[in-house]
Amino acid sequence: MASGQCCRFLEILLAIILPPLGVFLHFGCCSMEFCICLLLTVLGYIPGIIYAIYVLVALDSGRRDRDYYDLA
After folding, report:
1. What letter does residue 57 receive in the DSSP assignment?
2. How far is CA 46 from the centre of its chain?
3. Residue 15 contacts by C-beta under 8 Å, 6 or more apart in sequence?
4. How many other C-beta atoms lie within 10 A of the C-beta of residue 33?
5. 54-to-15, 36, 69, 71 alpha-carbon distances in Å
6. pLDDT digits (tens, 9 = 90+) for 1-34
7. For the chain, how far is it from start to end, CA to CA, in angstroms?
8. Cα separation of 21 and 15, whole Å?
């Protein structure tokens, strides 16, 4: 359990330093989230950071809830 929280912390830390890298590690290279994050980072560093943190925190919590209901 602690390993998952450590990975999430590292993804968020990488999303602050280099936003597309954090999103790439979580979603992969050919995902829509990565492409949007890359575009926002090229257009402006701060919008890329905001989007990357949003995607890693908000979208991940929704997937965790869906996984729980799929198992139940």
Report:
1. I
2. 15
3. 21, 22, 23, 49, 52, 53, 56
4. 19
5. 10, 12, 23, 26
6. 456 677 888 888 988 999 999 899 888 888 899 9
7. 20
8. 6
